[in-house]
Amino acid sequence: MTTSCLSLQDFTVHRGECPVVDQVSTELRAGDLVGLIGPNGAGKTTLMRGALGLLPYQGHSSLSALPPNARARAVAWLPQTREIAWPVSVETLVMLGRVPHLGAGQSPGAEDHAAVSDALAAMDLTGFATRPATALSGGEQARVLMARALAQNCPLIMADEPVAGLDPRHQIATLAHLQSLTQSGKAALVSLHDLGLAARFCDRLILMDHGQKIAEGPPEGVLTEDHLRRVFGITAHITQSEQGLIFQALEVVE
Amino acid sequence: MSGVSQKLLFTGLGLMVGLLTLASLLIGPAGFSIADSLAALFGGTGDAVSLVMQEIRLPRALLAIMVGISLGLSGAALQGYLRNPLAEPGLIGVSSSAAFGAVVTLQTGLAAQMMFALPFFGLFGAGVAVVLLLLLAGPRGGSLTLILAGIAISALAAALTSLVLNLSPNPFATSEIVFWMLGSLADRSFSHITIALPFMVLGWILILSTSRGLDALILGEDAAASLGINLTRLRWVLVLGVAACTGAATSVVGAIGFVGLVVPHILRPFVGARPSRLLPASALGGAALVLAADIAARIILPDRDLKLGVVMAIIGAPVFLHLIYRTRRAEL
């Protein structure tokens, strides 16, 4: 039995009276690359923020039960909004991922610098280290922030739309890197709008709609004609190939 | 930003503070020679020279340094926390409340009867502002509620100060109030330092303890929280630190603007924009700026008692305009 990285039981988050995440239960174990899919407003972001303990919730989340410092070493979180407040260097920004590993007043050591340069290399950012992060393009900034989450070097990475705004090469590279991380024993929960990438890279998909978990399982089991029509309101062409599952969205259904 | 250039920056700032302190000690209307002044500073013969050096110029220079550190740190911390280069220490309303407390003592004549009524009432005003801020913004309020509460308190304190001026039956008290509000380091003694220093040191410690949190906030509140930063705690440590610093500074020297706004802005590019490094740099930079402005206030019109706050605004505003101009050109 592999170690559990996240477990949610009857997890509910209310906004006012209305539940925006409704009775969701799931479990992520080491080695899992799980895609969180669903239309806008389905509750994907709220589920992840709630699971981290950033929102008030009912039910159980193994992560939010941890004290903040231990949680910061158990999960790296990449929020959807890409904020870089000051024109700090890329290296400084990625080094922030090492904050949970440093004692009070401790400056980064060799291990921290190694983690930062590994993360920069993984995100194809070698050579960017001294550039001001705010001077980069939007896609490059997204990769810098992803590198920050990687440098945190946690058993679990939770990323909210990590590939939005990236060029195709870096979309694939980012997910391929997450895949190699999970194959080496980490876990990742990634919300995605690109169902083609979700179908190809994720071991498992969680489909959400109106705050509820509609389905969970391997991509071919979740991306069914019925689910696509009912939840996304689209039709798609899906085939099994040597390259894995190929998904192409086709039309809107009324 | 490499370690070498950081060392250079802090050495440079330290040297600047040292030289300006020396200048502040040596420049004055009494016109002693340099050798006499320095000998009198450390000797203790009780003659006129040592009295002037030890009881007038030394506390003045020390207060300039303390006020500069406090305002520079407060400005850098608030800008870092709010992630906004336009934030300044007056934003949370503590300095206007301290000023109101001080003005009441001037109006009622309490300041004339009891020597230290003014700074104590100033500190009391600052304390009331912090309590109001806590009540208005709530223990878990966000940064926006904090700013709005600060603006409301600031406006209220300013209105009450105006009311005091408005109702003042005594033109002498009125002019005293107006001149006090311009801010000055003149005629301050070691007792003022004794009153202000404990609050300021507490403020410095509180503000410096937020440096890692301020760095993490570069990534936004969500990411900072996920990095293990307790944002509620950070917010109140910061507010208390800034309040202690600006409340104490306003209570002893009056309202000094621009230091907390301009100094972090000037120094930010030199520290690679890192909020944690900007804190100590702005502390030194603030000390240098207040010392320089105080020296300027004494040199430019020696017989007219030019006020520090006026000089600061006259230096500060054009410097700020120049910075805005440069930023605009960089953006083109």
General description of the model:
The complex is a heterodimer of chains A (254) and B (332). Chain A is an alpha/beta fold and 254 residues long. Chain A is 33% helix and 30% strand. In chain A, the strands form 3 sheets. Chain A has a 6-stranded mixed beta sheet, with helices on both faces. In chain A, strand 1 and strand 2 form a beta hairpin. In chain A, helix 4 packs across helix 5. The mean pLDDT of chain A is 93. With 332 residues, chain B is mainly α. Chain B has one domain: Orthogonal Bundle (ABC transporter involved in vitamin B12 uptake, BtuC). In chain B, 77% of the residues lie in helices and 0% in strands. Chain B has 15 helices and no strands. In chain B, helix 3 packs across helix 13 and helix 4 packs parallel to helix 12. Classes of the chains: A alpha/beta (254), B mainly alpha (332). The interface between A and B is medium-sized, with 32 and 22 residues.
Observed structural traits:
heterodimer; A: 254 residues; alpha/beta; 6-stranded mixed sheet; 3-stranded antiparallel sheet; 33% helix; 30% strand; B: 332 residues; mainly alpha; ABC transporter involved in vitamin B12 uptake, BtuC
Structure at a glance:
Chain A has 254 residues and is of the alpha/beta class. Chain A has 9 helices and 11 strands. Chain A has helices spanning 44-52, 68-74, 90-95, 110-122, 138-151, 168-183, 195-201, 219-222, 225-232; strands at residues 4-15, 18-29, 33-37, 58-61, 75-78, 156-160, 187-191, 204-209, 212-217, 234-241, 244-252.
Reconstruct the topology from this structure:
The complex is a heterodimer of chains A (254) and B (332).
Chain A: E1 4-15, E2 18-29, E3 33-37, H1 44-52, E4 58-61, H2 68-74, E5 75-78, H3 90-95, H4 110-122, H5 138-151, E6 156-160, H6 168-183, E7 187-191, H7 195-201, E8 204-209, E9 212-217, H8 219-222, H9 225-232, E10 234-241, E11 244-252
Helix pairs in contact in A: 4-5
Chain B: H1 3-26, H2 34-42, H3 48-82, H4 94-108, H5 110-113, H6 117-137, H7 143-167, H8 171-181, H9 190-208, H10 211-216, H11 221-226, H12 231-253, H13 259-267, H14 275-300, H15 308-331
Helix pairs in contact in B: 1-3, 1-14, 2-3, 3-9, 3-12, 3-13, 3-14, 4-6, 4-7, 4-8, 4-12, 6-7, 6-12, 9-12, 13-14, 13-15, 14-15
